[in-house]
What we know:
The protein has nine helices and seven strands. By secondary structure, it is α/β, with parallel strands linked by helices. The protein has a seven-stranded mixed beta sheet with strand order 3-2-1-4-5-7-6, with helices on both faces. The protein has helices at 2-14, 22-39, 50-62, 87-93, 106-118, 131-134, 155-162, 190-200, 241-244, and strands at 75-79, 98-103, 124-128, 144-149, 166-176, 203-212, 219-227.
Amino acid sequence: MRSEQLLQFKKDLEEFHISLSGEQIDQFIRYYEMLIEKNKVMNLTAITEFGEVLKKHFVDSLSLVTVCDLNDVLSVIDVGTGAGFPGIPLKIVFPGLRLTLLDSLQKRIGFLQEVVEELNLHDVRAVHGRAEDFAKPELFRESYDLCVSRAVANLSVLSEYCLPYVKLGGKFISYKSEKVSMESDHKQTEAKQAEHAIFVLGGKIVEQKGFMLPNSDIYRNLIVIEKCRSTPKQYPRKAGTASKKPL
Length: 247
């Protein structure tokens, strides 16, 4: 059964023009095993079946390649990384990335440090903290070519958390599971509502790509935001403000 699911995993990734080595397959399997083992004692994921994790976490994380050539990216920060998605799958497939995993829960960071060590991943740091606290000039502000996030938050709020980390000319890419259209006669969509916040923070939406994950009925939407100007120094605001009073 597992061999069939791995075969499907490889086929799914072929649609993204990704080919895995034997070592990379082994890293994904070990990552899965560690995830499930740790999930027994702390809440990392509600998705635990092998084939579903391959599709809904690993393939999903790697769908980023449909909107971004990671061979041109040196540094990535994954904000609100949780159990390591999308950061760890991206690092396995693109080992040259310099990756920062940021999460507000120390237990999750402890797990990620174990994963990084076990999988022998280099140039990865797992950092415990809130997004608002590390986007300071003396820390990680405007230090990354790419910021990614699968965190469940409104795009306006997420942009305030993420855009301060992105260098001028870099990108913030948000993973969304719902259809977030720019065009709507009936109501302002999330992306449309976020346009003002994104502009204030120095960015602009340059692409939205909606698609089904390979061989599934799982809809995904990747929103690509380019950093055009430096983020004003007052952003992000202090912890909790962005979610209570979105821009």
